[in-house]
Write a structure and sequence with these properties.
single chain; mainly alpha; flat
Length: 130
């Protein structure tokens, strides 16, 4: 996990250097973060908006959107916990731990989805008989 974070940090630093060299920009880190995160955020917003508009037209759109939001929060939480372990030296910071935590959420969600679909189908069957 530490290696992945170090590689990501090196990648970000390389992008930082390329922006400086390519555009000859001499910005502070705050100014660079303002522009780069702002642009990345807007690109992400339009992509998410596009896909959410498609999901909005689907059956169970609220469930799908709730899952996407929850899964996103779980990713942030899992990596925050792993970073906390690295900072405090309480536990091992491992990518496999993060993946296993997300698998836990997915398995529990799939169990919920299976039960919900079963209940939905039973209600449909019994309502047709009336």
């Amino acid at each position: 996990m530490k290696e992945i974070i170090i590689k990501l940090a090196e990648f970000v630093n390389d992008i930082h250097d390329v922006l400086f060299d390519l555009f000859g920009l001499h910005m502070t880190d705050k100014q660079l973060h303002f522009w780069v995160i702002g642009i990345i955020g807007m690109i992400t917003f339009f992509i998410v908006y596009f896909f959410f508009k498609i999901i909005e037209k689907m059956k169970w759109s609220t469930t799908i959107l709730s899952f996407v939001y929850t899964f996103t929060m779980m990713i942030v939480l899992v990596f925050a916990i792993e970073l906390q372990q690295a900072i405090t030296n309480r536990g091992n910071m491992e990518f496999a731990d993060a993946v296993m935590g997300l698998w836990g959420f997915l398995v529990f969600f799939l169990i919920y989805a299976a039960i919900a679909i079963l209940i939905y189908l039973l209600f449909k069957i019994f309502n047709k008989k009336k």
